[in-house]
Structure formats: structure tokens, C-alpha cells
Specification:
This protein has 17 helices and 15 strands. This is F-box domain-containing protein.
Length: 494
Amino acid sequence: MSLSTLPTECSSSILYFLDKASLYKCLFVNRHYCRVTIPVIWKDPFIKKFSTTISFSLINTLLLEEEDIFSLIPCTTRLYTNRTLFEYGKFIQKVNHNHLAKHVKTFLESNNMRNIDYAVQKVVDIIYHMIIRKSSTLQEFEVDVAQENFPKIPSFTNYGFKYLRSLTIVDLVTDDEKLQNIAEFLNMVSKYCNYIVNLELCINSFDNVFLKQYLDIIKLQPLKKITIYLECIEKVPNLGLEFRKETLKVLVLDNVDFQHFDLSLISKLKCLEHLEFLYCEGFDHCKDLFKDKLYLKEFKLWRCDSENLVEVIINCFCSESLLKLSLSDVTPRAVKAVKETCPNISFLCIQFQSTKFTDSIIPFICKFSSVRVLNIEINFRFDTSSLVRKLADYLIFVECLYLDFNVDLPGFIYFINNCKANLKKWIITLDNSTSSKDYLLYVNKFQKAHNSLKAFGIKKFGYNLMNEEIEIVDILKSQGIDLVAPGELDYLFH
């Protein structure tokens, strides 16, 4: 079936999987391809690439949609005045306010514009006016108030950001003028928006002037995901989570002190599936708090001040419904709690803080028959050969293995010769000075023995294949192994 015979919605969904370079090629196939590709390209046009050529083309194209543009901006501005083929503004679904402003500034600088800050604000206002007037599809908005030369967010009424679904705010400033502008914007969000499902806040403190506006958004919007990052560890209020018990599916809290936070409120979030505590503390009072059982699918407890409470936290927040678990404070008691409380996990990521428990924990987790993806990190430097050998001796059920620590060659050879698991995806980490050639040769040996590997990756900064390594890679590809590029490694295990 050709793309032209598919409904437009299906064609667009297929094109979303292509990168920008491939999308631009689609524009020149035929008229149909061009028509379905343009909305995909212009969904998120304000990408973080600020070359003069890119910025000029982007801003010039948008400004040409304004009929009386020369009366709106100074006549010294250079524009290409060819009529546009599409109304590009109506396709825009995502705006990063700071990226937009940076593109405008680069565009104006290419015109040798004077009084640049005033001109940037003027053009930014024009573009917002055009997007809001022509589009009802604006769904995502991001703003970093902390950046220098921050242009004001324009005011809008009930037709402006009405259908906004995602709001991200980085608020790490104390400048009065910026604070007033963002306060006005947040008030308008609370008043006119009704569909926000994703809220991300990166803030100095919950004692700032926006606390009421943030709580209003949490209370009034049908949020499915809340992410809160505090610049430094701080006690927080209860955040109004009780208002989101019927909608919230994802909750991520970073740098939060739960000393005066009622953790039992989390247990009342009936729809919660994904919960993360990152660099948090104050879990001492979580014992015996929970009457209601959570049915999480994903749980992450990472670098928190909870070493002696990990098993208690797992018993409180986890159950047989859990499928994905990430722990940085791994102890035998914690692993035992995982085995007893969440027997169905298929993804396990653990980080060792010391060598104290590695020999006892590795054999134990290798017995988890449900685990198919295993990610092991190490937060210190030591001889990892013993850990790799333990994995080789006990690993059976795992299909995807990510060793996020330096793997020495002797340990790697032992693993190749003794591993019983039929790995499908495998990533290792090497020092920059370590040659990959011998490792690739032994991967070839592993494939000959198991014939199971589909993807293999090497995590190494500045990694470029040498000619002799390329020859081995070709051999691996002939055996059905895809060598994963460094930029793709993080996506392989998520």
C-alpha cells in the first residue's frame, strides 16, 4: 500500500519516525508527500540550532504570513517577499519561548538591527499573534525565565493557549520584572486553560511568589504527569495532589524533603503508574503510613537519603503490578524486598555505591526469572572483573544487558566463554583509551555460540571506529547484529 492511499492521520504518524533530513527529502517526492510532511516539520520548528541561515529562513517564513508586516517591524529589516505555499503558523504545536527569541535575535542581527532588545520583543509578539490567530493546535509550551535578555511572554485571552496540554517552566530568578511577567502568564493559564495534562517545574523554592499559581494549576488542570525539580533540597507542601487522584499517572519529585509532607497522599492517587524519587530525603515517617495499596508499573528510587529504609519504601510503594524498577541504594535486604514484593518486574536498573554487597547481590538478582532487561551502574572506581565474572556464572533469564561501568578485557573474555544467557541486546562501557577491536572479536565468538544477539553497543566518549574495527563490524552485521551508535545507546534500554 502506498503512502498516498493511507488516511492523512496514518501518513503523518509514519512520518513522525523520520529524522529532519529524511523529512526534507519527502518534500520533493510529490505533491501528496509534501502536503503531509509540512505539518510534521512545522510541529516543533524552534529547535536549538541558531545559525544565521536557519534562523533567517525560519523567522522570515513566519513573518511573511503577516499581511501588513512592514508596518509592524522597522523597514530596515530585510525580508524575502515570495508568497508562502502554506500557512506554516497553523501547524505549530510546540513553542520553546527562549528558542523562539534566540532565533528572532539571530534573524535581526543578520539585518544589523539597532535597539535589538526592543526589536526582539516586537517580532516575538508578532509571531505569537500570528500563531494564536491562525492555530488552535498549540499544545506544548516551554519557558526558561532564568535566561538573560528574556523577552516577555505576550498576554492572551480565552482563545490563546486554550488547548495547551504541556507546560514546562524553569523559574530560577529573582528579577522583579521577569517575576511579574511570569506571574501574569501563570494567572492566565489558570484562568483560560482546561486541558493541561503535563506540568514540569524547575524552581528555586516553594516559598516563591508563584506558589499559589502552581498549586492552582495542579488543582484545576486534568494533569496526568507532574515533574517537580527543586534547585536544592527543600521541604514542600502537600502540592494539592489530593485533587489529582482520578487523573495523575506519572509523578516525579527531585530534591524534595518529605519531612513535613504527607506521603500517604500518594497512596490515594488511584491512577498512578509511574513514581520517581530523585535525590530526596525525609522518608523516616513513611512506615505504616499506607492503608491503600498502589499499583505502580514503574518505580525509581535514586540517590535518596534512604539507605536504611529502602526495603520499607519498596514495601510501601511497590506491589506485584510493578514491571520496571530502578534502585541506587542496593542492599541484600532491599533486593530481598524486591523479590517478595514485586515478583513480576521485567526491567531492573541497579547502582552499586560500594563493593560491599556485589558478590552476594549479583547471584540473587540473576535468579529473578521475570527480569528480561538488566542495567547495572557503578558509582565508584574499582576492579569490576569479579562482578562481570559473577554475571557470567549466574545470568540465565536476561535478554538485554547494559553494563554501565568500565569492563576490562579479561572479565569480558570470561563472560563470553561462560555466559549461559541468550542475550538479544547488549551494551558495554569502555575507557576512552581502550581499543574496541578485541571486544568486537569476542562478540563475534559469542554470536557463533548463541546466535541470539540482535544489537550491540559500546559506550565510549569520542568513539570512532578504526578501519580494522569496521571490518569486524561488517562480520557482525553479516550475522544479524546491529552495532548501535553512541547517540542511540540511552534509547535502547528505555
